[in-house]
Specification:
The protein has helices at 3-37, 51-75, 79-109, 121-152, 162-187. The protein is an all-alpha fold. α2 packs antiparallel against α5. The N and C termini lie far apart (52 Å).
Length: 189
């Protein structure tokens, strides 16, 4: 690898880190606003978070494991296993999205909406936190599809795995971000 390629790899990694730090700051601001707003008189302190969010947390944590195993498999040169594990990660991610929307449906079934007379500040915060995470997760889904496509084309070989490594890092970041949000919502009442 020449000096230019090394500099380009470092620049791409740095751009990803800057993006992830920016996303972290956004969610830090939103969770801080959540804490401040929880002192309001109309805050729902006995609101039950739907179990669909617990299921989705398990699914996204499992997707981190399958992506980790896919990286190990790629490093070992097992392309068939790598593809299968990336497809598993994608499937788990899609199930995560399904259960997120199921959770929204359960919140609505409890009588709470995003806006309007039936809304509350508590559930409005939940909608914003979850939808913003889902927006980032959709970019992660696109990344997974690109990784799978690149695997199909045989583009990851030897030391040419930067795209896979960046996707791996970003996916784990998204997973940890959701786990943070989930624990925050569960533990901070």
């Amino acid at each position: 690898m020449n000096d230019l390629q090394i500099k380009q790899e470092r620049a791409k990694k740095m751009m990803l880190w800057v993006g992830m730090i920016s996303m972290s700051m956004t969610f830090a601001g939103l969770t801080s606003a959540y804490v401040v707003s929880s002192t309001r008189a109309d805050w729902l302190s006995k609101f039950d978070l739907p179990s669909a969010f617990t299921i989705s947390t398990f699914l996204i944590a499992t997707s981190s494991l399958t992506f980790f195993l896919a990286k190990q498999s790629l490093n070992n040169g097992n392309k068939k296993s790598t593809k299968l594990l990336i497809l598993s990660t994608l499937g788990l991610a899609l199930l995560f999205v399904y259960f997120q929307f199921k959770g929204f449906g359960d919140i609505i079934d409890q009588g709470y909406y995003f806006t309007g007379a039936e809304s509350s500040i508590t559930t409005s915060f939940l909608y914003v936190l979850i939808l913003l995470h889902l927006a980032h997760l959709f970019s992660g889904l696109i990344v997974l599809m690109v990784v799978y496509y690149q695997l199909q084309k045989g583009r990851y070989f030897g030391s040419n795995t930067l795209g896979f490594e960046l996707a791996h890092l970003f996916w784990h970041f998204l997973d940890l971000l959701w786990i943070y949000l989930y624990l925050f919502i569960i533990l901070y009442r």
